[in-house]
Amino acid sequence: MTREVREARAVTVTGYGVQTAFGVGPEALRRGVFAGVPAFRPTTRFDTGPYRTAVAAVAPADPAGSDSPDGVDGWALRDALQRCGDAALGMAGLGADGQAAVLLGVAGDHRSVTRYWGGAGGSVEASPGELSYIGRGSDVARRAHAAEPQMSQPRAPGAHLADAVPAQLAELLGDGLGLVGTRLAFTNACVASAAAIIHACRLISSGRIDVAVCAGGYLVEEETFGKFDSGRALARDGMVRPFSAERSGLLLGDGVAAVVLESAEHARRRGARPLASVVGWGAATDAHHIAQPHPEGAGLARAVQQAMRLAGDPDGASLDYINAHGTGTKYNDGAETRGLRAAFPKFAESIPVSSTKSTTGHLLEAAGVVEFVITMLALLNGVLPPTAGFGSPDPECDLDYVPNEPRPTEPLRALTVNAAFGGANTALVLERP
Amino acid sequence: MTTTHTTAPRSPLTSPTALTVLAAATASHGTGRDDDIALPKLPGFVESAFSPLAYEVAARCLTAHPGDGDRTAVALASLTGDTTTADLASSRMVSGRVHNPLLFMQATANSVLGHMSREFGITGQMFSLSTLADPLTELLAMADVLLDDPELDRVLVLGVELGGGERVAAVHRELAADSGRPVPSLPAKAGLAAAILLGRADHDTSAPATVAVAVAGAQVPINSTSGAADQLGSIRSLFELAAAHRTDTDTDTDTESHTHAHQ
């Protein structure tokens, strides 16, 4: 069944902010993600002795050269990380308040980014009916628990256990940005922030709201690191090599991003120039396993097909790029390849596919929104980010993965996909104006 | 960090549409309620009541009103999530013990949703969320949005509230101090879950009855069946609505609305 969304309101992206291990803003991504330079390094945030690897895509201890495009303070991450490493504060220092500081810095960045791209700016914050949706998981909750194994221990100054509640981060973001409207925290793991974006698209497209701010953040910390290590999911060679025969697993990474989604009509009224349009979205479940993806990528194919039908191009003939989930694990990459082949039986081999987790690491709950921004920048910059660390081809991964070198091109439409525990899959289609 | 919790005005929905309750279920464990159940065993899930209770209420709804899993979506709301699993995992790490991969597997609600999807062949969207607003209001609004999608016929909404140790109690006390929210009074090992399977009034002709649920701003018809509402915590409204329309048959506490739902 085809949805006639062309009759619905167009959804545009009118602002964004992004911060990864490379630094703040699009220029940092250009030097890292779009150059195929991985950000992996041994982390000193915690003792990695008990684990099989010490490596993650983490911001350097002193992120000099943060390059926010309009002079926006890019030091929030540094401050948060310093607090993380401060023994006096312990792990609670990177609780929701620490994450919120980063998130607010990044979300606030959308104003300058809008100007950076030539938009007219305007007061998005003043728009009535604005929503704050945020994708994040329970990692902060785990940190807060870990920070206080015994309630009798002294509490970190200013640390509130209530900040461990996922909804709190959406509240903090909403309060900090002065947003009114519903505040939701999506908690469904690695598709959380993509799910937030999809929900916002549905609300805007159907006319229920005009504007939404969607954000997500993950900063590498020990507990999640230890869990992925216990699941033997982390790469053994300090690199993430998606779709390559040498791939041995994923590595975690710092990532925070926020996007402003807005109806085209509302953007026009306030004189904002859309950076891109969101023309399709889909979400589907594998119905296969609580942790492993469907071996044929069935749910991924279904989500992609939904999104492409919505975009008016069920065959994918108009698609110029796919930002893959591409974790670098044996399970994911073969299944994802087969899922993309199933979704695009005619065109899969001619569409470039890359995994930017090869440079940023896996950003967990933030993966959806950060990769959404990267996909949009590929459209705006005319460069496809490569799959870094690509060695030799794997017979079960047989698409064009843009290996190791960026590819100049003029893409008009791109798809970004994500997948998560429980067989959850999301797909979003972006289009250059 | 000081945080204020204001009740943000809801955005008006353009066309509040009646939803139909196709099935509803509640389950409680260790609460002292008359209808408490033993914790169901769920293969692959350990220690915590979160996933077994979520699965129990979902399974009752999906069994009571079978349908096309390809055209079914699921949304789970829980303010604090599976705090039992989070607490166990954190305690192990802090005390220097090896991480338990099983706790890793069940660390997010995705896992039980994935199990549910496999057992009932659900391939529509499944997601989980946390909100300081009333989860019933948010879930009904979400179902309304999802049911605009012509590829979906049904949305299962569910919520879970767990008891917990001192840390979880401290979380609730802090939230209460900031916002005046009620502090749930569940015993540490207790848990509650509620689920409602929703469709459109004009969509599923096999619906037992139309029970109109206004989505935007209007009062939801709730017959409170709980004498211990404090136990219900953040899912109180959802639990009471599900109890009022309960379609399972393992209890004698059905309400008039339940009977109505079976007409």
Which features characterize this protein?
heterodimer; A: 433 residues; alpha/beta; Peroxisomal Thiolase, Chain A, domain 1; eleven-stranded mixed sheet; two-stranded antiparallel sheet; globular; B: 263 residues; five-stranded mixed sheet; 8 helices; 16% strand; disordered N terminus; disordered C terminus
How would you characterize this protein structure?
- The complex is a heterodimer of chains A (433) and B (263).
- With 433 residues, chain A is α/β, with parallel strands linked by helices.
- Chain A has one domain (10-431): 3-Layer(aba) Sandwich (Peroxisomal Thiolase, Chain A, domain 1).
- Chain A is 31% helix and 18% strand.
- In chain A, strand 10 (321-323), helix 10 (330-343) and strand 11 (353-354) form a beta-alpha-beta unit.
- Chain B has 263 residues and is an alpha/beta fold.
- Chain B has one domain (19-261): Thiolase/Chalcone synthase (Peroxisomal Thiolase, Chain A, domain 1).
- Chain B is built from eight helices and five strands.
- Chain B has helices spanning 50-64, 83-94, 101-105, 109-120, 135-146, 166-179, 236-244, 256-261; strands at 19-29, 72-77, 126-130, 154-162, 191-200.
- Chain B is globular, with a radius of gyration of 18 Å.
- Chain B starts with 18 loop residues before the first strand and ends with a helix.
- The relative contact order of chain B is 0.23.
- Chains A and B meet through helix 3, helix 4, helix 5, strand 6 and helix 6 of A and helix 2, helix 3, helix 4, strand 3 and helix 5 of B.
